[in-house]
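ingest -> fold -> write
write: protein_1
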Amino acid sequence: MTPLPVRIAGTGVHLPPDVVTNRRLAETLDTSDEWIVNRTGIRERRWLAPDLATSDMCVAAAHPALAAAGCAVRDVDAIVVATYTYDQPLPSTALIVKEALGAFRALTFDITQAACANGVQALFLGSLLVRTGAARRVLVIAADSASRVTDPEDRTTRVFFGDAAGAAVLTGATTPGTGLLGWDFGAELSYDVEIPAGGSRQPAGATTFADRRHYLKMNGRTVWDTATRCLPDSVLNATAKAGLTVDDVAHFFLHQANLNIVRAAMDKLGVPRDRAPITVDRLGNTGSAGVFTVLHKGFSEGTVRPGDAFVVSAIGAGFQWGTLCFRA
């Protein structure tokens, strides 16, 4: 596999200020703090204010990422937005973000239907744009407002998800041996995680709303089985294509679906758990943004050093999954 000379020049994150604890959820759901922590590792999550939308979080995450990269808004050549909770079906959320930022010459792309894997797909697309010369600086933003699509009466989904946005600026890598060294993507069709209504098969109407078919539905057992099988396998495939083993990888930025899933994936890989930073305990599953929250943690805290190999890996509804293996 031919490496792509692309690097992450800066990262940023935006978290809504409203902190929703497990005890707060237990006031309206048949659940408890102990039940949620034991099954998910989640203690709290953030919810977006009712008067704001996903694009607002995107803009807020973009500014610190651009600042960290030393990149002015006017110099952004392309914007890729990853979200399954777009502002509205039309127009493009990426275009809304572009206008709000004032990045008037940027190309815009939306990645929308891989759910929690959107962010990895967006990073891959951004890397290809840089590699082909179509863009010198690509702003990749992943954000989701899952509080808008989870049923307030369903503890199966309501306790898992939170709202957040993360961003990364991609540019060309000039140091030999660095960049995107390998990648792996896969999929297998499943309706075990879905939002049934709102599309052409089940258009929005009185019946679909009454039946609560516009909310996210999730089979937790299938998610566990698929994630703990496919995430480690994808990491192994991507590192092998990069000419590395998992022992060579310093940081594992994994989808923050559930603390137990992250731990099970690391155990299956045979890698110490402390190589995988965690944000799910205080943010919940933030969908497309999940891998960006841990990526930002690694970059902003200075734990990712020049020469370090790291992977970014996620799985989402569909099921679709993917892994990118970089060297900083």
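write: protein_2
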Amino acid sequence: MRIGRIGVSAAAGARERGTAVLWIYRSDADGRLETVPEIERNTWVHLVDPTEAEIGRVAGALGLPADFLHDPLDAEERPRVEKDDAGVLIILSVPYPTAGDPVPYRTIPVGIIHTRDVLVTVCRQDHPVFRAFTAGQVKGFYTHMKTRFTLQFMFLVARYYLHYLNDLNARIVEAEAALQRSMRNQEVYILLNINKSLVYFTTALKVNRGVMQKLTRETYMKMYEDDEELLQDAIIEMQQALDASDIHSENLSNLMDAYAAIIQNNVNTVLKILTALTIILAIPTMIASIYGMNVPLPYQDSPYAFPVLMGISTLVGLSTGYAFWRMRLF
């Protein structure tokens, strides 16, 4: 089973330019990955944002339904496991940092396809988890061990969720410190965007966990005892990430509620002060308004009228202010 494919140098150039690419890897006897020009038995076909032509060539060569390769490219696709005569499709949601987006992290679907002789992965982006495999950072990985790759991939995805959750928690602490110094809208928007990332994470982690638990109940791929232990470890890591996401979400929700209450209390305090000042100034204003009328008034011809009226106004204002202070309106 072979199809024509871009050479190694062309694939590397495409990686640098960020265009749609397809890599074909094969492990040597020592476990080192090497790129090969054609799909062969026991190879790993890795597609990143593939074109329709690439999808058609891979699907035709491996006898896969085109939907197996199209579905992971849909940003709204939910994690699931699907099996037919051509192979097994496993879709997981993986986290990734955004660039130029107010929301720091989002999730993206990744497809892992098991055929009889070839492993296929499909994603819209070249995620760091894949680069961990291609860089030789994952021990015990061989391209012919499709089940082991899938379980190791799940475990690493859970680790990335935990890593990004730690970063989100640090951002929350930083925004909280900024809010304590000032009540600007910018920090509130930062917290809202972090909350969006946590919502994406929580939703994805719950469905990922369901997919992994389904693999323990039904036979989608052959697993040995070591594989079953690795799957259980991956489920535990995914559950820990879900618990951490829930905790951070609850803490962030409580934090935003607390600051909303603080802001409302500050507004109420300002309104009380303004109301008290208005009442204090209303009495001198009333006296000045009365003596500003163009009608005969008591003591209007007295040389002491102005200082007496000013003294009375000041005394009444101070008395009113003192009464408000006793009532804790200031």
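write: annotation protein_2
The domain at 8-263 is CATH 3.30.460.20 (Beta Polymerase; domain 2).
The two ends are 84 Å apart (CA to CA).
pipeline exit 0
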